[in-house]
C-alpha cells in the first residue's frame, strides 16, 4: 500500500494545527506507559532493521532511537507526542521524506483488524469512491491549443491505480492523441501509485517498444522489481510527440518517478522547480497505542543503477519557479515550432505568439502621439480610428448593427493589435492591422489579419484605404 508523501505531511500538519487550536482529547492526552513506549520503539527498530533498504542507515536509526530510549526521552508522553518525537529523531538521524510516525486511530484499527474495519466502513469506502469520481481521479482538465498543436493535461491530484482511474487517464490521453506537443502538469501532485506513471509513459512509445522505466530494490535483493512501460494502452500512441513535464517542490513520490523516468529515458523535458525528493516507496505498519509508521521499503532508481531521486529530488532541465513553469514550457514549444521549417502554418502561428509575448504594449497617450496620422475614416466610413482618453480606438460600423469599439495597442512598429476583436476565433489578441507606408514613410493603407483557432491566418481581401487619401 502506498501513500503520497505530500498528502501524508498535509495530514500531519493538520493534526499539529488542531493541537494548537483545541484542547487535547482524552485519548490524545493519555500518557503512554513506559513499557508500551519501549515496545513501540522495539517494533519500530525491528521493522527498520528487517525492511529498510539501506542496512547502514537502518542501523543508525536503531542506535539513535535506543540511545534516546535509554535516556528516557520516550517516556511519559501522550500518543501524539510520542509519534512526533520519534519522527523528529528519525529525521534528525537521516532525512527520509517518507519515514514518519503518527497517531491515527482509524488506520491503526484497519491495520490490526482489517476484516472488521472493512465491514464497518463501507460508508467510508463509498464516500472515498464518490470523492475520487468527483475529483476526476486527480485529472483536473485537458486543454487543446490547435494553433500550436499543444495538449495541456493538468493532474494535480494523486496517482490512483483503480480501473476507473485508468479509464480517466486514457480519456485524457485520448483528447491529446494527435497533438504534436504534450504538456503534463504534475505541480502539486503528491504521488500515489507508480502504475499510473508507467501507464502514462507507455503512450509515448510504439507498441512493442517497451522501455525499462524504473528499478525497485529491497533490502532482500531477491525481491527486486524491474518496472517497464506497458505493451498495450487503450487509444493512440504518441511516439513522436514532444513531451514536457511541469514539476514543483510539491511533486513527490510516484509523480516524481514519472518525471525522473522520462528524464532518464531522454523522452521529454522537465520544467519547473526541484521536486520533493521522496524516492523510497513503502507502506503502513501498526506500532501500538494507535501509532502507525509509514515505512519506506523499496528504493526506486534509474534502470541498472542504485541512484534515484531520494533526498535530491528531480532536477529540472529548465528551471522556472512556481506558476511561471507553464509559460516557460510555452516558450520552449514556440521555439521548437519555429525550428521546424516544414510546418509553415505552425511557424506563422508561433511567430504571432512570440510577437505577442515580446510586445511593446504601447497604448494611451504614447500610442496617440506616435500614430496620430492613423486618426481618420477608412473604406468610406466602414471603419474609423479615433483618439479617445484611453488612447486610439478602432470603430466598426455595419448596417443594422450597433457600432463596435476596440482599443488599439502596439505589438511592434507598424503592427497594432485590435484588442478583443474577433476573440471568438483566436483569443483577445487575434486581430491586427499592419500599416503600409509609401516611399516617403506616409501611411497609405492598412492590412487587417486575424489568426484563427487552428493557427491559420486570415488576411482581409482588400486593404483599408483612408478617405481623403494618404495621411501625412
UniProtKB/TrEMBL annotation:
Residues 122-321 form the Tail specific protease domain. Gene3D superfamilies: 2-enoyl-CoA Hydratase, Chain A, domain 1, 3.30.750.44. Residues 1-29 form the signal peptide. Keywords: Signal. GO terms for biological process: proteolysis. SUPFAM superfamilies: ClpP/crotonase (SSF52096). GO terms for molecular function: serine-type peptidase activity. It comes from Chitinophaga costaii. PANTHER family: INTERPHOTORECEPTOR RETINOID-BINDING PROTEIN, RETINOL-BINDING PROTEIN 3. The keyword Signal applies. This is N-terminal domain of Peptidase_S41. InterPro entries: ClpP/crotonase-like_dom_sf, Tail-specific_protease.
